[in-house]
Write a structure and sequence with these properties.
It is a single chain. The chain has 265 residues and is mainly alpha-helical. It has a single domain, classed as Ferritin (Up-down Bundle), CATH 1.20.1260. 67% of the residues lie in helices and 2% in strands. Helix 1 runs antiparallel to helix 2 and helix 6 runs antiparallel to helix 7. The radius of gyration is 18 Å and the shape is globular.
C-alpha cells in the first residue's frame, strides 16, 4: 500500500498544475478506498514554496494592475486572479493533511475532499481562460495566501483559525459582488463557475470552523476570545469587512461573534 504522507509531499511539490490536480484526485480516491497507509516518523518538510509553474511571476500585491469587468481583458484578469487563489488552495488543503499528522482520520478525509474540490475549481477556471485565449500564468500574482500558511505551520489551531476562518471566509464576503458584476456584463460562463466555487467554499469554511472548534474544545480554550487574540497576533487585530452574514452563518460562524468582529476587535 502507498504511504499517505509521501504521496502528499509529492503532490504539494509537483510544479505542473495538471499533474498536481491529477495527483490530488487520486489521493482522495485512494484514501476513500483505504489504499493509503499512515506511517509515523517520516520527516515533515517546511515547504516555504510549494510546487508551482514558473509563471505566474509573483509580485507584491500593490504592484498588481487593477482589474475591471468592463472589458474582456479585465474579466480575463479577474478569472486569472481567481485561478491563482484556487491553485494555492489546493496546496493549502494538502498541506493541512501533510503537516498536522496527529489529527483524526476525519480531518484527513475533510481536507482531501477540500483539495479535490479546489483542484476542480482551478481546472474550471483554467479551461475558461484557454477558451478566452489566455492561460494560468499569463499575468502576475502574489503569494499572500501561502505566506499565512507558512506563518501557521507550527500550530494546527492557528492554521484553522487564520486560513479557513479569515482568508477563505473573506472569499464568502467578496465573491457574490464579483458574481453580480459578471452578471451585469452578461458573462454567463464566468457566473456559472463562480457560483460553483462560492457554493463549495461555504462548505470549506464550515470544515475549517468545525476543526477550529474541535481544537479549542480539546485544549480548553474559549473559541471566540482565542480567535480575537490570534487575529491581533497575526493581523494587528484587523479583519476586512463587510461580512456576508448569511454565508458565514451557513459556514458555522455565530451571529454574536460576527457582530463583535464587525464592531472591531
Amino acid at each position: 500500500m502507498a504511504e499517505l504522507f509521501r504521496q502528499l509531499e509529492n503532490a504539494i511539490l509537483e510544479p505542473d498544475y495538471q499533474v498536481k490536480c491529477e495527483l490530488t484526485a487520486t489521493l482522495y480516491q485512494e484514501w476513500r478506498q483505504g489504499s493509503l497507509v499512515r506511517q509515523a516518523g517520516s520527516k515533515i518538510l517546511s515547504i516555504d514554496d510549494p510546487g508551482r509553474p514558473q509563471k505566474p511571476i509573483l509580485v507584491d500585491p500593490r504592484e498588481l494592475e487593477r482589474r475591471s469587468v468592463s472589458s474582456e481583458e479585465g474579466r480575463i484578469r479577474l478569472l486569472h486572479a481567481f485561478a491563482h487563489i484556487e491553485f494555492n488552495a489546493i496546496n493549502i488543503a494538502l498541506d493541512a493533511v501533510y503537516r498536522f499528522r496527529d489529527m483524526p482520520e476525519q480531518f484527513i478525509s475533510d481536507w482531501l475532499l477540500v483539495a479535490t474540490e479546489e483542484a476542480r475549481h482551478f481546472q474550471l477556471l483554467e479551461r475558461e481562460l484557454k477558451q478566452r485565449g489566455s492561460s494560468y500564468g499569463a499575468y502576475h500574482a502574489h503569494r499572500g495566501l501561502w505566506d499565512m500558511v507558512c506563518k501557521t505551520r507550527h500550530d494546527v489551531l492557528h492554521r484553522m483559525a487564520l486560513v479557513p476562518r479569515v482568508m477563505e471566509a473573506r472569499g464568502l464576503d467578496v465573491t457574490p459582488g464579483m458574481i453580480a458584476k459578471f452578471k451585469q456584463s452578461d458573462d454567463r460562463a464566468a457566473v456559472e463557475i463562480l457560483e460553483v466555487i462560492y457554493h463549495d467554499e461555504i462548505g470549506h469554511v464550515c470544515i475549517g470552523n468545525h476543526w477550529y472548534g474541535y481544537l479549542c474544545e480539546q485544549q480548553g480554550l474559549d473559541a471566540e476570545s482565542t480567535f480575537r487574540d490570534l487575529v491581533v497576533q497575526y493581523m494587528d487585530g484587523k479583519l476586512r469587512g463587510p461580512f456576508n452574514w448569511q454565508a458565514r452563518i451557513e459556514a458555522g460562524f455565530q451571529a454574536a461573534e460576527l457582530s463583535a468582529l464587525e464592531q472591531g476587535i
